[in-house]
Write a structure and sequence with these properties.
Elements lengths: L6 E5 L4 H12 L3 E6 L5 E2 L5 H10 L6 E4 L8 H20 L6 E5 L10 H8 L3 H10 L9 H16 L11 E7 L8 H4 L2 H10 L11 H11 L11 E4 L3 H6 L6
Parallel strand pairs: 1-2, 1-4, 2-3, 4-5, 5-6, 6-7
Length: 257
């Protein structure tokens, strides 16, 4: 896969999956503009409208890919993982459209499989951030077992599925996809591994029969890099679970009945 001469924006680039992806792209000849709270080319808090605008304003010139990976535990989950991600993709789309083989990928999670408050999800899809935040605050359990993180990722899956085939994305030649990892050994997931009982409980609830528990950041980065490369000529609008078979074990053939 060739990334030589291509220019990518990677959010969440300072640690975990984002850092592994940024490193892999650079090793393969790409220029990477990293965005994170610290230790990045662009320092911005994507949980806030102001931080999102900083990112969009600081990225100039044509870009070939956006990898929206930011979503760790240092900022509010719903605001970062849904509204920050969507604002990143929308805001940088005009720059993407100038490139010869533009690609965009966002990171979701197997947490998106858990049911969440439908009113929160609808407020997200309606671009009504204040209402979504207020609804979740009034009903924290409505975020599902992982709180605002899971409901944000579920809404993000739906947004990408809706947006990807439209004139603004597929019609402009921009592939837009999601990678949904399972449990991966990252700083954001450190709480799972800090206690043996917690680790065993999470592994029992979300088994990963292929590859083991936990996964490695570079395994997810490899898939992200392919989806963002010119070699991806025919894949868009997909939510691809990179979770060692966790989604298949949980849902079986449900989608095909």
């Amino acid at each position: 896969m060739s990334h030589a001469g291509r220019r990518y924006v990677v959010t969440g680039s300072a640690s975990g999956i984002g850092a592994a992806t940024a490193a892999m792209l650079r090793e393969r000849g790409a220029q990477v503009i990293g965005c994170d709270l610290d230790d990045a080319d662009i320092r911005a808090d994507l949980s806030t409208p102001e931080g999102r605008q900083v990112l969009i304003d600081r990225v100039t010139g044509p870009i070939d890919g956006v990898l929206a990976i930011a979503g760790g535990g240092r900022t509010p989950a719903l605001q970062t993982n849904y509204f920050g991600t969507v604002a990143t993709l929308r805001g940088l789309r005009p720059l993407l459209a100038r490139g010869p083989a533009p690609r965009a990928v966002a990171v979701s999670s197997t947490s998106s499989l858990a049911p969440g408050n439908d009113r929160v999800i609808q407020a997200c899809l309606d671009d009504d951030e204040p209402t979504a935040v207020d609804l979740l605050a009034a009903d924290p359990a409505g975020g599902g077992p992982t709180g605002g993180y899971g409901v944000a990722k579920r809404a993000l899956n739906r947004w990408v599925r809706r947006a990807a085939p439209t004139p603004d994305w597929a019609g402009a030649g921009i592939a837009l996809n999601i990678v949904a990892p399972g449990v991966v050994d990252t700083p954001a997931a450190a709480w799972i591994f800090a206690d043996d009982d917690t680790r065993k409980a999470v592994e029992a609830a979300a088994p990963q029969p292929f590859g083991g528990f936990p996964g490695r950041p570079e395994w997810i980065a490899e898939l992200l890099c392919w989806l963002a490369s010119p070699d991806n000529r025919f894949v868009t609008g997909q939510v691809i679970f990179a979770d060692g078979g966790g989604e298949a074990a949980a849902l079986g053939d449900l989608h095909w009945r």
